[in-house]
Amino acid sequence: MRQTLDFIRHHPLSGQRWLGAYARFFGWQARSRIWRVKHRIDWIEGSVLLVSKGMTGATGNIYCGLHEFADMEFLLHFLRPDDLFLDIGANVGSYTVLASKVVGARTIAFEPDPGTAIHLADNIDANAIAQAVTVHEVALGPTDGTVAFTVGLDTTNRVATPGQSNTRTVPVRRLDGIDGADQAVFAKIDVEGFEREVFRGADGILAAPNLMALATELDDPEIEQVLTGFGFQKFAYDPFARQLRTTPIPGLRQSNAIYARNVDAVAARLASSPKRSWRGLTI
To answer: Helices marked H in the chain — which ranges?
Structure first.
């Protein structure tokens, strides 16, 4: 609990209004324990989230507006209506909702865990964006086939490590084999450490000239070498200035590394994007 309260206290959207954020946190703790059902939470500009206890990450949106502030702001500032967004590791659909409900972009979402995919489908339906979103209940990897996937970790299930027990088998596809994926302008990859394998099956997508930016949770020298080989450069994003920085931004937590190419065009999009509102704040 202390870690969560510290996160709230230092979050850019709640740090100056932390009492209200704390009230939302403790209110959620009470509600989610008393009524063990999905709660409909009003979110950003008419969007909603259906959230229940145990949805790690999604609950941060209740307390602070945008759980992964800099990364979600990048999506909101960069994407345009009718763009195609790849949500790889969609989980319950927070990024999908921002892309297709708030911005009006199209999304191809990937979520291999059957239970989590149900939550994703519920959030798609709750936001009436089914026509804009295509869901693939598969993992992505270097070859088509199957892979062991953990069971019982709620929304934090992941590709299992060798010898790990309590798993199920899920299908794996290469991203290059997904119809239409080569039209994406932005991709978010958050697959709990399996990112390298995703990139090994995505040479065609990474080479597609319309892919201008991506965000990856796992960022190591191997991944950086792969992405720089396709012309991408690593940045941190400053949502307040709407600028890409080549060095970390002091005091601003970033969950994903942002990679971009055709940087002038990316910067122009970021600068000209409309502002968004949440609880009286302009973001």
So the answer is: 2-9, 18-34, 58-64, 69-78, 94-97, 114-126, 195-200, 203-207, 221-229, 263-272
